[in-house]
Amino acid sequence: MDNMKRYYQILELEPGASPEEVKQAYRDLAKVWHPDRFSHDPSLQKKAQEKLKEINEAYEKLSSHRPDSHYRTSQQESWSQKSQSWSQSGSYQYDKSWTYQKPSATDDYERSRIPRVITLIIVGIAIVMLSKIINVPGSKEKTRPRAKIPPVERFLRERHTQPSKVKDKSSPPIPEYMLPKKKETPKVESPPSEAKPVEQKRVTPLISKLSEKKKAASPAIPAGYFSLGSTKKEVLAAQGNPDQALTKQFRYGTSYIYFSKGKVTGWNIESHPLKVMLKPAKPTSKTVYDIGSTMDEVLTIQGTPDYYSEGLFRYGTSYVYFSDGRVTGWKKGIPELKLKKSE
């Protein structure tokens, strides 16, 4: 029983929860502790794998455990006692009022009708297939379509095949409408010798204008700090030389900075402090946040996170989860999250 209580505690449930609640809790925790979400940090990924193993074990034990097992065992014992009593007595009591009844003629007919219908269907299909293969007498023979003969060739055939009644053996002239028409060659007009060039107006590229507007709209970061989208040179100027430098990450002690295409995409602050600052693009006047709040609202209220990714903010041992830029959940720890109090 102590093990079952521990399994309920792993799934954050109370003992006696329904199978639907167990399944839903398992799905939620599997999403939260999936190792792919911690691919940037090997240590957190290892902890997530161990936690996921415990969750899987608890779910398997609770799903296989059923409260009706005591009823089934007691029912099996009662049946075994009855069988022992019958074997000892050597006789089995049965109902003498029951008598065997012979099947009637209607029952025999109903049983035999089904196979007869099936055989009739099979015979009909076979007759249709044979009629397509074998030419049935009386069927219309398919006539091949005659090839089209040009009018000149038809005229010459008729002249040679039919006997001429005219005494003059000289062949009559061919009518003009039967003669093949000559293809006319299209006239190609020569281009004019002096053609004025078309003036092309210079159009300023829109990409450069949009990039300038985007740079102007992004919040300014003070000197000596780096932020999301900073280059490696800016990180080196603010933080100094790293203990380990790779193409996709810098390590300072136990803290990491992650890059993609030479720009900062995230970080993980542990014992070594990082000079990172993330300001909201649209600050808010709110002091608390809740489910559905934006990342800018969380950044304004809670500040720069210790761990940043597209779907997760970490503040110490507290976590805030996002989906499509909106808050979907959290896990309380230290420091306390500035959440909206439930009524």
Major sheet: size, sense and barrel closure? 8 strands, antiparallel
N- to C-terminal separation?
36 Å
Portion in helices: 25-40%
Share of β-strand residues: 5-15%
What is the structural class?
alpha+beta
- The radius of gyration is 45 Å
Shape: flat
What letter string, H or E per element, gives the SSE order?
HHHHHHHHEEEEHEEEE
Mean pLDDT level: 76
Descriptive overview:
Among the domains are: about 1-65, Helix Hairpins (Orthogonal Bundle), CATH 1.10.287.110; about 215-330, no CATH class. It is about 40% helix and about 10% strand. It contains nine helices and eight strands. It has helices spanning about 1-10, 20-30, 40-65, 70-90, 105-135, 150-160, 205-215, 230-240, 295-300, and strands at about 245, 250, 255-260, 265-270, 305-310, 310-315, 320-325, 325-330. Strands 1-2-3-4-5-6-7-8 form an eight-stranded antiparallel beta sheet, with no helix packed on it. Strand 7 and strand 8 form a beta hairpin.
Layout of secondary structure:
Elements: H1 2-10, H2 19-32, H3 42-64, H4 69-89, H5 105-133, H6 151-161, H7 206-217, H8 232-239, E1 244-245, E2 249-252, E3 255-260, E4 263-268, H9 295-302, E5 307-309, E6 312-315, E7 318-323, E8 326-331
Antiparallel strand pairs: 1-2, 2-3, 3-4, 4-5, 5-6, 6-7, 7-8
Helix pairs in contact: 1-3, 2-3
